[in-house]
Design a protein that fits this description.
- By secondary structure, this protein is an alpha/beta fold.
- The chain is 38% helix and 21% strand.
- It has 14 helices and 22 strands.
- The strands form six sheets. Strands 15-16-17-14-13-19-20 form a seven-stranded mixed sheet, with helices on both faces. Strands 10-9-8-11-12 form a five-stranded parallel sheet, sandwiched between helices. The protein has a three-stranded mixed sheet with strand order 1-5-4, with no helix packed on it.
- β9, α6 and β10 form a beta-alpha-beta unit.
- α1 crosses α7.
- The longest helix is centred in the N-terminal third of the chain and has 21 residues.
- It is globular and about 80 Å long.
- It binds nicotinamide-adenine-dinucleotide.
- The site of nicotinamide-adenine-dinucleotide has 31 residues, from α7 and α8.
């Protein structure tokens, strides 16, 4: 039964000022899941005002206390993991096994960020003058705007929101319009653990009417964005104009290198999981396999077998191994790339079309697809497809494989399968992505390590890990002179 949901602004549940709503649809069945406020600039302004009004008291709340609240939130999320995973699967399609992982990442992030409340280390350093103390501390920036994609509808928002809050900022959050219910859950959970009103606000709606006004609103000091390159670049341009800090996490074209000494069965299983998990809609999805020419045919055979054996269906069914794409637009996009592949001369070795059959008629299902005879410069080897499609490119040597891997506009994740320790260390040194795996696929980041990419994937920030506070804090330097004199640095003692 469809439910009616609200924005969460200043601790109150409210509809869009215009009264407009949009529908949230199950991509596996087409069923209506709920109606959400189709908000606009006036709702963004109300949320920004509420966040600013709450800022001072939140900043003066001791950081360890802010952390304790996140710790309680983590425990509450853990206690509702199954409910949350089911809601995420219903609204975006990936299988329950994976949405449970998505929610668990939120729990891990809550505990990690909670600990920062008792660390958040500054630095002390000797002054060059006698009887003078010098140190630097992190301070919050103000109101943080968070705009996210739909593929990790719980985990990704928590990577941004929890560090921002523990640092003493307040937040205005716009969840993806494809996964609004997870944003609603987050607000409900914050309310239940007693977060003061206005510290965290959720405004539902689309990018044009809610996201863009957030970017432009002068009362939002920092923007943290996860999504496509096209939108990220627009946001970065606008933030450059207004001098607003912006952290961007965008696309990937992640490669797995498979050398001729690799365990091919292991590599094939990792490629299948990396390429077809979350229906290929992960920023870290394996979308290229760069395989030594001596083992190419054998590896293709193993990956094709795994692709063809996958059971498609609703992610809520325990036997399903791959769910639908998130919406009709994604289906159209992935289908369009099949024509691109054909025009470029690639061969479809598995899949290649919309998946039909019993139980799949009403959803946006696409067959797990293996493309071979792909050359490194082809569009299917360069552009993010964001669907269950993997392209095989042949390499002649380790150096050749690394060069092919590095030759894309993106730089998020890469991996190498090899039994040779020298090859592994060479790859760790020479692969130019933000994340490199050895004998493991391109997905599976853990929250206590920095996350992010080089080149077109981002703008230099890293989320999570020991870098989690960097986007959401400023450094303030403090000098205390207890000499009782006017001491002139660089002058009096030189
Ligand atoms: P998208 O860019 O279409 O949308 C992302 C968010 O931006 C949504 O909330 C959307 O409503 C909002 N938005 C759209 N237009 C906007 C505008 N003009 N101004 C402000 N906000 C706007 O991306 P998507 O389809 O939701 O997500 C897929 C993309 O996200 C892929 O490229 C994927 O690689 C990327 N992604 C990256 C990471 C990462 O950490 N690097 C993680 C997950 C997803």
């Amino acid at each position: 039964m469809s439910q009616s949901f609200h924005n969460y602004i200043g601790g109150r549940w409210v509809g869009a000022r215009s009264g407009a709503t949009f529908q949230n649809i199950d991509p596996a069945t087409g069923e209506l899941l709920g109606e959400f406020p189709d908000s606009g600039a006036e709702d963004v302004a109300a949320a920004a005002d509420a966040a600013r009004a709450a800022m001072r008291a939140w900043q003066l709340t001791p950081a360890p206390k802010r952390g304790e609240l996140l710790f309680r939130l983590g425990a509450l999320i853990a206690s509702q993991k199954e409910t949350l995973a089911q809601a995420a699967t219903r609204e975006m399609g990936k299988i329950l096994l994976e949405t449970r992982g998505d929610v668990q990442e939120g729990v891990d992030m809550a505990y990690l960020a909670a600990g920062e409340g008792r660390r958040m280390y500054g630095m002390t350093t000797p002054s060059e003058m006698p009887d003078k103390w010098a140190m630097s501390v992190r301070v919050p920036i103000g109101v943080v705007g968070v705009i996210t994609a739909w593929n990790f509808p719980f985990a990704v928002p928590t990577w941004k929101i929890f560090p921002a809050l523990v640092a003493g900022n307040t937040v205005v959050f716009k969840p993806s319009e494809e996964t609004p219910e997870m944003g609603w859950h987050l607000a409900r959970l914050f309310e239940e653990v007693g977060l003061p009103a206005g510290v965290f606000n959720v405004v539902h709606g689309n990018g044009r009417n809610v996201g863009w006004p957030m970017v432009q609103h002068p009362g939002i000091d920092v923007l943290s964005f996860t999504g496509s390159n096209a939108v990220g670049q627009q946001i970065a341009t606008e933030c450059a104009r207004t001098g607003k800090r912006v952290s961007l996490e965008m696309g990937g074209k992640n490669g797995v290198i498979v050398m001729d000494d690799a365990d091919l069965a292991l590599a094939a299983s990792a490629v299948a999981w990396g390429a077809f998990g979350t229906t290929g809609q992960r920023c870290t999805a394996t979308s290229r396999v760069i395989v030594h020419e001596r083992v190419h045919d054998e590896l293709v055979k193993l990956v094709v077998q795994r692709a063809q054996a996958l059971r498609l269906g609703s992610g809520l069914e325990p036997t399903t191994e791959m769910g639908p794409l998130v919406n009709a637009k994604q289906l159209e996009r992935v289908t369009g790339y099949m024509k691109v592949a054909a025009d470029e001369g690639a061969k479809v070795s598995a899949g290649g079309a919309r998946a039909t059959g019993e139980g799949l008629q009403s959803g946006f299902f696409f067959q797990p697809t293996v493309l071979t005879q792909v050359e490194r410069g082809m569009r299917v080897a360069q552009e993010e497809i964001f669907g269950p499609v993997v392209s095989f490119v042949k390499a002649k040597s380790l150096e050749d494989a690394i060069a092919i891997n590095n030759d894309t506009p993106f730089g998020l994740s890469s991996s190498i399968f090899t039994a040779n320790v020298n090859a592994a260390f060479t790859a760790m040194r020479d692969l130019t992505t933000g994340i490199v795996y050895v004998n493991h696929g391109t997905t599976g980041a853990e929250t206590h390590l920095p996350f992010g990419g080089t080149r077109g994937t981002g703008n230099g920030h890293r989320e999570a890990g020991h870098t989690m506070l960097d986007a959401f804090t400023e450094w303030k330097s403090l000098y205390v002179d207890f000499s009782g004199k006017v001491q002139r640095a660089q002058i009096d003692n030189n």
